[in-house]
Write a structure and sequence with these properties.
It contains 15 helices and 19 strands. The chain is α/β, with parallel strands linked by helices and about 450 residues long. It has three domains: about 130 residues, Methylthiotransferase, N-terminal domain (Rossmann fold, 3-Layer(aba) Sandwich); about 240 residues, pyruvate-formate lyase- activating enzyme; about 60 residues, OB fold (Dihydrolipoamide Acetyltransferase, E2P) (Beta Barrel), CATH 2.40.50. The chain has a six-stranded parallel beta sheet with strand order 2-1-3-4-5-6, sandwiched between helices. Strands 15-16-17-19-18 form a five-stranded mixed beta barrel. Bound molecules: S-adenosyl-L-homocysteine, iron/sulfur cluster and FE3-S4 cluster. The site of iron/sulfur cluster (SF4) has 10 residues, from helix 6.
């Protein structure tokens, strides 16, 4: 029987990192290719697809709560199905596989992180043959980025250049659920970028768990600087990339911040801990001094670069002194943004077996202190924008209402402004506006359209 999802509606819910957000667009692309129609609300869906994350226990708990409660949401009126078809993909699916079918009797399909392309067929088997299936097999030659897509924002695109991770930071589950590093071919990446530019995309974000080691697996040595140069040459207006690992960020990549027109003055460079002792236990392969050296080089080529980072608090054996080194590093660098996480033991990782997790009240105090330091730094950083005129890529209406637009500065700051007379935030989405900054808050700037 030819695969046909005509007459079915679907809803995709993505949790976790940008990789899942990207994969959600590919799931949408495939299901639409076979005739299914997208709906935003789970109530309206015949097929519900989850893309899941297990990086911390909190992400997992939230997901399991959602899956358990969606059972009580009745199928829509006029649905061709008696019961909604539910599929679980992403990192929890890869980790737990078939056991999810045992835990949740209402789940029909489980598909792993390398089995995205199998989803339409599995859904058809569930719908037409009443089957319950799980597939977490490895398909190292298939990239989700080669599947059909249906993107959420016409003006900006994720562009995965590699998947997986070889770093095995001692706390992290990602290498176990996303597999080893695999780089796409340079030709495929550049031709995808060219296609985006010719279809009006203004901003490309290159994706990978460790983009700086792009090409090491297939070309022998990292080729990330080359990717930046070639994608810049396509004429894209804004180029960003996540995530960079401090041990692999090369001088050649650093120098692109000064040299390449499209590379935006913003870099996400997780440091995780400011203590060399903890960094060693984390298996991060760099020191605090090395990290600070990178910051110095970056500021040399791009003096006001917006730096963001990830930090873990409460790692096993973290002392007051270790924490103080983390806090002082935040103060010293002056990040534009930082994501702070409480250590979450992930079964199967080396850190889950380490002793000495600090008491929860100690962790909470450290966490609160750190958040406070991060906020002060971000506030200070934003003050420097006051009075400047900044090119903003408009994304639509802000959450504050239809009359206020929201967009992104080159440094990735959120910028709000009143919508000019005679137009709407939706009409302006995807265009650039020059905005003079009149107010600088911790997490956003406000200004007037010039
Ligand atoms: N590849 C990226 C993203 C990894 S996950 C990177 O290397 O930066 C995103 C962030 O989650 C990590 O940077 C880390 O700060 C945090 N994280 C990962 N595992 C964690 C754990 N077990 N507990 C708490 N935070 C964790
Ligand atoms: Fe996890 Fe480390 Fe790989 Fe990032 S670099 S995904 S933190 S193992
Ligand atoms: Fe989560 Fe998987 Fe991304 S564990 S952070 S969704 S790679």
């Amino acid at each position: 029987m030819p695969l046909n999802l005509d007459g079915f509606t679907y809803c995709v819910l993505a949790f976790g990192c940008q990789m899942n957000e990207h994969d959600a667009e590919r799931v949408a692309g495939m299901l639409e290719h076979y005739g299914a129609k997208r709906v935003e609300a789970l109530e309206d869906s015949d097929i519900l697809v989850y893309l899941t994350c297990c990086v911390r226990l909190s992400a997992e708990t939230r997901l399991f709560g959602h899956v358990a409660s969606c059972k009580n949401v009745p199928v829509r009126k006029n649905s061709p199905l008696e019961n909604r078809i539910i599929a679980i993909g992403g990192c929890i699916a890869q980790r737990d596989g078939e056991s999810l079918l045992e835990s949740f009797a209402h789940v029909n399909v489980v598909f792993g992180t390398q089995a995205l392309h199998l989803l339409p067929e599995m859904l058809a088997d569930a719908i037409y043959k009443n089957k319950r299936l799980a597939d977490t097999s490895d398909h190292p030659d298939i990239f989700s980025a080669d599947l059909p897509t249906s993107r959420n924002t016409p003006w900006s695109a994720w562009l995965p250049i590699m998947t997986g991770c070889n770093n095995f930071c001692s706390y992290c589950i990602v290498p176990y659920v996303r597999g080893r590093e695999r780089s796409r071919s340079i030709e495929d990446i550049v031709s995808e970028a060219e296609h985006y530019v010719s279809s009006g995309v203004k901003e490309i974000t290159l994706l990978g768990q460790n983009v700086n080691s792009f090409g090491r697996d297939s070309y022998g040595t990292p080729q990330f600087a080359r990717i930046l140069k070639e994608v810049d040459a396509t004429g894209i207006e804004r180029l960003r990339f996540v995530t960079s690992h401090p041990k692999d960020l090369s001088d050649e990549v650093i120098s692109t911040f000064g040299e390449l027109r499209s590379v935006m003055p913003a870099l996400h460079l997780p440091f995780q801990s400011g203590s060399n002792r903890v960094l060693k236990l984390m298996n991060r392969s760099y020191t605090r001094e090395h990290y600070l050296g990178l910051i110095e080089k970056l500021r040399h080529v791009c003096p006001d670069i917006a730096l963001s980072t990830d930090i873990i608090v409460g790692f096993p054996s973290e002392t007051e002194d270790d924490f103080e080194q983390t806090r002082s590093l935040v103060e010293q660098v002056g990040f534009a943004q930082a994501f702070t996480f409480i250590f979450s033991p992930r079964s199967g990782t080396p850190a889950a077996k380490m002793d000495g997790i600090p008491a929860s009240d100690v962790i909470q105090r450290r966490f609160d202190t750190l958040v406070h330091t991060v906020q002060n730094g971000a506030y200070e950083y934003n003050q420097k924008e006051l009075g400047k005129v900044i090119p903003v890529l408009v994304e639509g209406a802000s959450k504050r209402g239809e009359g206020i637009l929201a967009g992104k500065s080159p440094k990735n700051q959120t910028v709000h402004a009143y919508v000019p007379d005679g137009t709407t935030a939706q009409e302006l989405a995807g265009t650039f506006l020059n905005i003079r900054i009149t107010e600088a808050k911790t997490w956003y700037l406000f200004g007037e359209v010039i």
